[in-house]
Specification:
Layout: E1 9-11, E2 35-37, H1 43-70, H2 97-116, H3 126-145, E3 147-148, E4 153-155, H4 157-166, H5 169-178, E5 182-183, H6 190-197, E6 212-220, E7 226-233, H7 239-243, H8 246-253, E8 257-263, E9 268-275
Parallel strand pairs: 4-6
Antiparallel strand pairs: 1-2, 3-5, 6-7, 7-9, 8-9
Helix pairs in contact: 2-3
Length: 279
Amino acid sequence: MPLRAVTSTAAISSAPPSYLLSPTHHHRHLHFPATVTSTQFSPALLSTETLHLSTSKRRRFVFAAEAVDSSSPPSATVVGDKSIVPDDQFSLAQISFGVVGLGSGVTLLAYGFGAYFNILPGSEWSALMLTYGFPVAVIGMALKYAELKPVPCVTYSDAQKLREKCATEILKQVKTDVTRYRYGDEQHLDEALKRIFQYGQGGGISRRSAPVLQMIREEVTEDGKYCLVLVFEAKTLQLSDFEQRQAKFTSFFGPGITAEVGKGVNDLYEVRLISNTPA
């Protein structure tokens, strides 16, 4: 016999179905009104509520699955530490004595003249300041003229960890020499380049064509070896000029290293001094 909605009220003695109860009220004694309309329990309403509940559960299940998938770690991993180490260590080698001498001498001369003409206090010291200020300024000017600035150095974290253990003493000395101020030298590694490229000799190059060191770089090779990279600028040379002297780079900066040469961007060439000491 088909069911139909009636408007009369009927007393309900039994509790409502469990799907109408919230999860937090399963263990509580709930009181319902004594009379409700019979249309609330029609088959159409039950089917609609059941469909809505199952759809909501499926949606929550999908959302939970997506959350788990998004929290899973990526498959790619980072090999090695390629972060650059900042060069914030203070060293006297990084101070320009030309700038210090010239600045000190000019200051003494300026104050000495001011005190001598009673513009500044300390007239009794004016003669002493003028006497020492002039030679100090001249020495500072000479040092500034003969000054060779240090080249920039890029050091990666993984290379810094291997330097003390794997770098040879010659490689450490090369890094120290080219990253400090020098006086009287035309360029960094001048003696080494003179022997390797044989300036003005048969089979060599002219001095005006000599490569100029631009920077150095400390890194680790793919097989885990410490490597000091010398980056030169040579506008009149070719890669073959460096490849012909690859063995000379190895013998001069050896023992315990292997030299490799390569072409960089524009007129830059790289000489890679790879330490043979295992990590």
